[in-house]
Amino acid sequence: MNLDELLQGLFPSGHDVRVEGAIASGTGRLPGLEVAVLGAVGGAEVGVAEALRLAAGVLRVVRDHPGRPLLFPVDTRGQRMARREEMLGLNGALAHLAECVELARQRGHRTLGLVHGEAVSGGVLPLGFMADEVHAVPGARPAVMNLRAMARVTKIPLPRLEELSRASAVLTPGLESFVATGAIASVWQAPLDAALAAALARPGGPDRRMALGAARGGRTLAQRVAARVEEEGT
Amino acid sequence: MSAPPAPRRSYREAGARRRLLAVLDPGSFRELVGPAERVQSPHLAALDLPAAFDDGVAVGRGTLQGRPVLAASQEGAFLGGAVGEVHGAKLTGLLRLAAREQPAGVVLLLDSGGVRLQEANAGLLAVSEILRALLAARAAGVPVVGLIGGGWGCFGGMGIVGRCCDGLAMSEEGRLGLSGPEVIETTCGVEELDTRDRALVWRLYGGKHRIVLGEADLLVEDDLAAFRAAAASLLTRRRVLTLERLCQAQEALEGRLADFGSCADPVDLWAAAGVVAPAELPLLEPEPFLAAVARARRPVP
Amino acid sequence: MERLSYEVEVEGPAAPRAPPALVGVVASGNLEVLVEPGDAGRCRVEIATSARGFGEIWEAVVRDFAARHPVAGLRFSVNDAGATPAVVTLRLGQAVEEYLGATR
To answer: What is the architecture of the domain spanning B16-176+216-240?
Structure first.
């Protein structure tokens, strides 16, 4: 789904979201509620410049519109891989962005990630996946990396990897796997504005992704292991 | 007569548990979900890879100069310290425990290439959960300290986690970044980054550059006792998550991009930051290095 | 992966009880060994290894090791990433030392 279709579906009463240099930002209207929209879109790579623009956007909403919910549309092919980005401390810029989202949460803003295109690693960690809840629309393509690249890095032959990945939500790229592991809470169907309103009506609360992964059988250990560490430590 | 100075014991060469035992007060470490419980990764056997009894990370409690802390140490020698489902869940569980019981701090001995590709989706999700749990612990008032001096450094999603700590200590040999040199060379080609150019790799990712950038707070010798002292001193450092501080950080990071964005190499960046003899920096011992960069450093608020 | 298990009857006094000890690391050409209290009068060694088809060599290494060390009543668990017999012998020895060291 492209961004225009997505925004039309989410905000039938209108929005003023503009895309500049791969960053979407603006406000959407729901009945009686304004929603801040902010995200890297169009399959963009996220580098230092993009991360700082996104962080500035989050801080602006926190400063000027206390409590306004934040929606992060996600369509990014990941972090920009380049010597210059590393020299400028890309990991630090992304960490700053994650801190800004945490600040918004602490100050009572509801945050939602919504994957409508790609959602790869460093592009999605500090913003979309930092949200209280992460959802997707049909056709979203979340991944860590494609199987071909994975085969190259892990030195596992591609046919073997393809065979294994058919059986494992932990390994296979794609929406189904990310739903099964709990990364994506649900896939929204039309009408999208109703799905958005329903999500915003729920309280923020703690990170529930481990419980989801366990309940859906796509990631069965994480929940138990984290709980055991907490219990043994108590 | 005074005792002779203790001989240096390399942090980099030590394993994850030895590092942890040396950083915490002697005899104080109590491991949680230790190796005898055999909480291993179930995903590696299918790929014909041996698992580890602790999935490459030790977590537990101890004291640091008498103060109660929670601590974790990643084993870089096992699959590059990479974060899989179990490994990540141990770290997340520890950080959740921290938010609840409010120890004097959490000490993370980071040594990781990032997401474990052999269990990619669970690894990415685990890093995301660590990130949220770490920031929640900080928001609950618990300082989190990161130490980077292992053989793998701190890369990928863990490079983001590392920078989300209140304070970070690195050795010169410790490396911090997002995309590691091998990843960039494989993805973008040798023209973008030649991993055989070791000097370039250190200039880009090494502790000294991170100190100049303001990404690391303390530069320490590759010595277990030095890392212990650094961890103790960082425990008192807080970067509280307030709008005011994050706006200051935003300004500092935008300034960095504006001032250094056109630099081609870290040496140019050091010159632009005002280091007098930038080409000499890689050769300097920690003390003269810190003196040489004192005015050029740009700590992120 | 191959899983092997050996049990050797060992004479001599049982090793004292101590907290589990772990030595080594699972890295190419290396292994980790976990030692814990086990059943009286015997030494058990369980191995998970990425190198298939070396059962006879493992058995010889284990029997030789059990004959040379006070391992009655101990249980050893091994995760192996293709270590040579020399490295295996070294690590097993270190593991006993580490375990008994905690009892001294």
So the answer is: Alpha-Beta Complex (3.90)
Interface probe, candidates A86, A115, A162, A171, chain B, greatest B C-beta count within 10 A: A86
Show which of residues 78-117 on chain A sit within 8 Å of chain B, judged by CB atoms: 79, 81-96, 98-100, 102-103, 106-107
Residue B1: pLDDT over 80: no
Q: How far is residue B211 from each of residues A37, B53, B193, B300, measured CA to CA in Å?
A: 35, 36, 22, 10
Residue B4: predicted pLDDT: 64
- Quote the mean pLDDT of chain B: 95
Nearest to B109 by CA among B172, B55, B152: B152
Report pLDDT digits (tens) over A66-76: 999 999 999 99
The answer to whether position A158 is within a domain reads: no
Q: Please tell me the number of Cα atoms within 13 Å of B42 on its side-chain side.
A: 11
Q: Return the closest-CA partner of residue B115 out of A150, A223, C32.
A: A150
Residue A76 lies in a domain: yes
Residue B117 scores a pLDDT above 70: yes
Domains and CATH numbers, chain C: 2-101 (3.30.230)
Give the domain range for residue A108.
3-140+184-203
Nearest to B36 among C26, C34, C50 (CB): C34
Residue A125 lies in a domain: yes
pLDDT tens-place string over residues B200-246:
999 999 999 999 999 999 999 999 999 999 999 999 989 999 999 99
| Residue pairs spanning A and B at CB distance below 8 A | 263
Domain-located, residue A219: no
Q: What are phi and psi of C10, to 5 degrees?
A: -125, 130
Which residue on chain A is closest to B139 by alpha carbon? A106
* Burial grade of B7 (CB within 10 A; 0-12, 13-18, 19 or more): exposed
What's the average model confidence in pLDDT over B248-264? 97
Distance between CA atoms of A182 and A214, rounded to whole angstroms? 8
Number of domains in chain A: 1
CATH number, residue A51? 3.90.226.10
CB pair distance less than 8 Å for B121 and A173: yes
The predicted pLDDT at position A162 comes to 87
Predicted complex: ipTM over 0.95: yes
Residue spans of the domains in chain B: they are 16-176+216-240
